[in-house]
Amino acid sequence: MICFNCKTQIPDNSQVCPNCGAPQAGNPQTAQNPQAQIAQAQMQTQAAHARTYKAIKLRRVQRWIFYVIIIIIFVAMIGYMLKIYSDNTKLVESITQTQTQLKETQGNLDSTRQTLTGKDSELTQLKQSTLDNQNALNLKMQDLQKTLNGQTDSLKQLEQYKGQAMSATQVFSMISQVSSFMSSKDLSRIPVADFNLASGNDGDKDGLSDDLEASLGTNSLKSDTDGDTFADKAEFLGGYDPLASGKKLATDLKFAQANKGKIVIQNDNGNGSFIWYINLKDGKRYFIGRLPDGVVSAYVPMTASTTSTSSSSAR
Fold this sequence. Notes:
mainly alpha
């Protein structure tokens, strides 16, 4: 039969058009058949129930979708609130840390200010000290200038005295008038003073000049003449004989006291003549230097007689 609504062919006795869904109760093809009408009514009822079921199912789906949306929104709101809470907590912690750091920075700044204040005070003191030192330096420069002026005058006087210098024989004659001759053996009985020991050439660099080593009889080219691992100077000042290992010098304090204040000449060791002074205060002998060979040879006749006399009288 033909649907009276959409004009398409539908199965016979159809109560509802399967194409457009229009009921076929008024279809003339079914009006004359009571059974068809009953079947059509049942089909209409089933269609209505189906439509109702579909609507209810649709509403249920819509309701669940709504619930899901509400839940999602609720969860999202809770998550957003938690995020806001976490961000606020972090912000509060950051503010707290910043405040703590600010306090520490303020404390460090105060400490730095105190340090700078102390440094300023030290700088002021340093400036004052520098000024005082500069003043003292100026005074010393003035004193030095005066000293230099005095030395200049002394040099001028020395230049004047050069023209009036005495001959070597005259110098030795003057020394001989205020000195006496003493043998090396007697001279070793007097303690030695650490004075003028390295004045002049020092071939072996042992702290004893070559002239002094000639007076002592030690080797001027060896710092340890007797080879006992002790330097000549250390043995000499320590009271030991630098020519004999382990041998002490026979020091005689009474003999030294008896000869205090004397200038003596030593010339019996074959190395030349040497001048020594026995100090009036400490009784020690001080090396003055070596007499020129020409002076000694010019005064040899007096040397022997004076030596024996001096040695015997000193004893």
